[in-house]
């Protein structure tokens, strides 16, 4: 099987794991629920062709499926909007739409499903174990299938000791102005750093 990438470019949080039992039509959660932390644009998990749009019922809200080269089909549900057309080719960098809360959703999240050999909703009273065509998206992405897990972010926002020391040095030497310690530097600030280095090394 081809490797699958997370459907977000930025940080993402698991809001509901795959496979837990509950009040769904088949009795268990067929997909994985993800919430974008910041960027809410949804991308395909692999390159492919847009197989269907809003073809699998109103509970999914605005939804898209993508057929991949290995015969698997991925489904992206509850989208706020859809930015692809049926039959269109998509790559890992083609936005499919935006995370939303359309259909049967209590808050903004992406519900993603991955089915081997095409979409097929599991029968009533089934289990993940006897529906082997339904793949565990967390496993496909190589992440932990657990509520609250955040991917793509360090455990704390605290800078390392090295970064703190460097920041203090830049402030003391008036290379940076000492504001916004946790933000990215601006192009002007980068120019100031480069300028200071050039002066330091005698241009
Ligand atoms: Zn879900």
List strands and helices in order, with pairings.
Layout: E1 11-16, E2 32-37, E3 41-42, E4 48-53, E5 62-68, E6 73-79, E7 81-82, E8 89-90, E9 97-98, E10 110-115, E11 134-135, H1 137-141, E12 150-151, H2 161-172, H3 187-200
Antiparallel strand pairs: 1-2, 1-12, 2-10, 3-9, 4-5, 4-8, 5-6, 6-10, 7-9, 10-11
The structure holds zinc ion (ZN).
The site of zinc ion has 5 residues, from loops.
Distance N to C terminus: 53 Å
Q: Work out the helicity level.
A: 10-25%
Query: CATH topology of the largest domain, anyone?
Result: Glucose Permease (Domain IIA)
Q: What's the rounded overall pLDDT mean?
A: 91
How many H/I helical runs? Answer: 3
Present as ligands are:
zinc ion
Broad CATH class of the largest domain: Mainly Beta
Order of helices and strands: EEEEEEEEEEEHEHH
The SS-based structural class is alpha+beta
Major β-sheet annotation: 9 strands, antiparallel
Shape estimate: elongated
Examine the secondary-structure arrangement and name the CATH architecture of the largest domain.
Answer: Distorted Sandwich
- What Rg, in angstroms, do the CA atoms define? 22 Å
Which oligomerization state do the chains in this entry correspond to? Answer: single chain
Beta strand count: 12
Uncertain runs with pLDDT below 50, 5 residues or more?
Answer: none
**How would you name the CATH homologous superfamily of the largest domain?**
Glucose Permease (Domain IIA)
Provide the β-strand percentage band. Answer: 15-25%
């Amino acid at each position: 099987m081809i490797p699958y990438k997370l459907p977000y470019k930025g940080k993402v949080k698991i809001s509901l794991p795959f496979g837990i039992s509950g009040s769904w039509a088949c009795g268990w959660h067929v997909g994985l629920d993800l919430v974008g932390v910041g960027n809410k644009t949804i991308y395909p998990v692999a390159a492919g062709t847009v197989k269907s749009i809003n073809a699998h019922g109103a509970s999914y809200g605005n939804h898209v499926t993508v057929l991949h080269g290995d015969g698997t089909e991925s489904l992206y549900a509850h989208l706020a909007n859809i930015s692809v057309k049926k039959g269109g080719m998509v790559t890992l960098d083609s936005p499919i739409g935006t995370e939303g809360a359309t259909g049967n959703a209590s808050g903004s999240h992406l519900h993603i499903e991955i089915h081997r050999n095409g979409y097929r909703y599991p029968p009533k009273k089934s289990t993940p174990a006897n529906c082997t065509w339904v793949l565990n998206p967390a496993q496909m992405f190589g992440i932990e299938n657990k509520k609250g897990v955040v991917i793509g972010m360090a455990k704390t926002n605290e800078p390392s000791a090295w970064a703190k020391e460097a920041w203090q040095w830049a402030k003391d030497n008036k290379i940076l102005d000492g504001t916004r310690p946790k933000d990215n530097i601006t192009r002007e600030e980068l120019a100031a750093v480069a300028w200071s280095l050039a002066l330091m090394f005698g241009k």
